[in-house]
């Protein structure tokens, strides 16, 4: 057995690296996190996440504390130059199948602080800041990562079972594994202006407004507390110096606020892009988050997609660290995640087109025309792409709902890095190699399973359904599926 210093090295401690590290640490792995910055970035980029992501935060154990610092997002309206609503995307205040509200607004530094504080509680997690990774070696049985301390210039190397690049849009690890980006076609410079209100401004919208305008598309975000954001498309070759000129900027903002009503916390420019890495894995190296994909932020889904990656990969890596490397299991990561994220990117690009034009664009199959002629959009929840399990199984790749037991305890807490069989059949649990939950554990289980048109389901640790069956031979059903996950080592 090869000696490794760590089970996993994570390169980059942004929101995605922080989430992944927590999920892995919960499975008792030895983790080294290398981050080139001295501390967390104190200004937000992401301002929104959804119910599925809050469920992951709940798994990590930060949802309760985070709840105090976030607000429920009421939805988004796309309006035209005359101020008329051309597309409505409501996010009703109703608890979803994930057990949380559909959409939240947050302050990114609050989230990153929570993730880091939680990591400090794990004895096997080591975080090194001011450390930049600059060399890697990918061997059949381990990885080597070389990093330097950016303060002293000293160099170190560590050996681990796996290395995961959570190192953002300009990922070094992506270069190391020689993965090109597939350009999906959207590229536009946008100015982002974050303000802190000095006074109560009840006349500002309490939801996101997308101002569709072929000359100057813009977005207004109702962020947490006194924070508000405007994102404004820049014209080709427009001089930033001119655009950010204090007088001109306030003139632009004067439709909403005046200089005595707010301070500008920051103004900056981002190039909104849509792209996806061609390879998300080479050997024992993986890409997660912005390192693997980029989306324009019109749906607020870039970070969310990265957190879905983390949730998909964490349990697979944990099983491989504990029970041995399994190619098939690890190969399923890219195929399951890439089609799901592509769906979000394509929809966000359509929204970008709508913002840049006026009307006439089909945003997605979930858009429909209301009787008054305006368009309404439903939230998308794409299934996982091909991967583990049988694609002809209609339940495979769907998310399993968040449930409470009869004592109002969250069933999600029963998941670890192992899949669970959920069945309505009376069976000898000793014959089944994984944890079994039945009608004694889950109230109204028969009604729930009826919705899936099945008697039994295997649910993966990331709460996605691996398989469903009406068969009574649950031993065979479980053995077949479990062998895929553990590489028939169980
Ligand atoms: C204006 C704007 C608004 C957005 N709004 C939303 C939103 O509302 N909702 C949403 O879900 N997403 C949103 N996004 C997208 C979101 O911000 C990103 O998807 C998310 O921050 C990516 O997280 P990450 O952890 O993958 O990468 P990053 O946050 O970029 O973190 C990467 C980390 O890796 C470190 N690093 C890089 N190279 C190395 C190296 N060689 N060695 C060591 N460390 C290294 C970096 O210092 C950094 O800390 C928005 C983006 C923008 C620009």
Please explain how this structure is put together.
By secondary structure, the protein is α/β, with parallel strands linked by helices. Among the domains are: 6-69 and 103-181 and 275-349, 3-Layer(bba) Sandwich (FAD/NAD(P)-binding domain), CATH 3.50.50.60; 411-486, Glutaredoxin. Helix content is 26%, strand content 28%. It is built from 11 helices and 25 strands. The protein has helices at residues 15-25, 51-60, 63-67, 108-119, 172-176, 240-243, 246-253, 302-323, 327-356, 445-452, 474-486, and strands at residues 6-11, 31-34, 48-50, 71-72, 75-79, 85-90, 103-105, 125-128, 131-138, 143-149, 155-165, 181-197, 208-211, 218-222, 227-233, 262-277, 281-282, 285-287, 293-294, 367-369, 375-377, 420-423, 435-437, 456-459, 465-469. The longest helix has 30 residues, at 327-356. It binds flavin-adenine dinucleotide. Flavin-adenine dinucleotide binds next to helix 1, strand 3, strand 9 and helix 8.
Q: Brief overview, please?
A:
The chain has helices at residues 15-25, 51-60, 63-67, 108-119, 172-176, 240-243, 246-253, 302-323, 327-356, 445-452, 474-486; strands at residues 6-11, 31-34, 48-50, 71-72, 75-79, 85-90, 103-105, 125-128, 131-138, 143-149, 155-165, 181-197, 208-211, 218-222, 227-233, 262-277, 281-282, 285-287, 293-294, 367-369, 375-377, 420-423, 435-437, 456-459, 465-469. The chain is α/β, with parallel strands linked by helices. The structure holds flavin-adenine dinucleotide (FAD).
């Amino acid at each position: 057995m090869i000696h490794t210093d760590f089970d996993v090295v994570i390169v980059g401690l942004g929101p995605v690296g922080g989430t992944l590290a927590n999920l892995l640490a919960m499975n008792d792995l030895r983790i080294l996190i290398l981050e080139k910055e001295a501390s967390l970035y104190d200004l937000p980029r992401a301002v929104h996440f959804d119910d599925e992501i809050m469920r992951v935060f709940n798994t990590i154990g930060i949802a309760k504390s985070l709840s105090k610092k976030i607000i429920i997002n009421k939805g988004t309206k796309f309006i035209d130059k005359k101020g008329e609503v051309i597309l409505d995307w409501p996010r009703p205040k109703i608890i979803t199948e994930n057990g949380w509200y559909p959409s939240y607004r947050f302050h990114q530094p609050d989230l990153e602080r929570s993730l880091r504080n939680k990591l400090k509680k794990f004895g096997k997690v080591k975080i090194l800041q001011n450390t930049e990774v600059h060399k890697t070696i990918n061997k059949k049985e381990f990885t080597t990562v070389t990093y330097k301390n950016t303060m002293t210039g000293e160099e170190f190397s560590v050996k681990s079972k796996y290395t995961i690049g959570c190192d953002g849009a300009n990922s070094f690890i992506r270069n190391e594994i020689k993965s090109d980006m597939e350009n999906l076609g959207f590229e536009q410079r946008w100015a982002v202006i974050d303000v802190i209100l000095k006074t109560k401004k009840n006349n500002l919208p309490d939801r996101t407004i997308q101002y569709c305008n072929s000359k100057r598309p813009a977005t207004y975000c109702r962020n947490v507390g006194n924070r508000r954001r405007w994102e404004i498309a820049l014209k080709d070759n427009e001089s930033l110096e001119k655009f950010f000129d204090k007088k001109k900027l306030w003139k632009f903002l004067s439709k909403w606020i005046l200089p005595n009503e707010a301070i500008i916390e920051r103004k900056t420019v981002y190039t909104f892009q849509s792209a996806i890495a061609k390879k998300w894995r080479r050997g024992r190296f993986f890409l997660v988050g912005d390192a693997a994909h980029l989306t324009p932020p019109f749906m607020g889904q870039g970070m969310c997609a990265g957190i879905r990656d983390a949730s998909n990969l964490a349990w697979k890596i944990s099983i491989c660290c504990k029970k041995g490397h399994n190619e098939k299991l690890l190969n399923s990561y890219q195929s399951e995640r890439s089609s799901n994220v592509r769906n979000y990117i394509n929809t966000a690009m359509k929204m970008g087109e709508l913002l840049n034009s006026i009307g006439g664009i089909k945003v997605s199959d979930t858009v429909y025309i209301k009787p008054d002629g305006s368009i309404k959009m439903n939230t998308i929840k794409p299934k996982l792409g091909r991967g583990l399990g049988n694609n002809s199984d209609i339940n495979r790749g769907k998310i399993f709902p968040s449930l409470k037991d009869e004592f109002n305890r969250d069933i999600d807490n029963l998941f670890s890095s192992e899949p669970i069989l959920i069945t309505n059949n009376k069976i000898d649990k000793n014959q089944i190699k994984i944890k079994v939950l039945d009608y004694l554990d889950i109230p109204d289980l028969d009604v729930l399973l009826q919705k899936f048109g099945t008697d039994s389901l295997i649910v993966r640790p990331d709460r996605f359904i691996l398989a469903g069956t009406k068969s009574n031979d649950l031993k065979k059903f479980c053995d077949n599926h479990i062998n895929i996950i553990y590489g028939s080592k169980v």
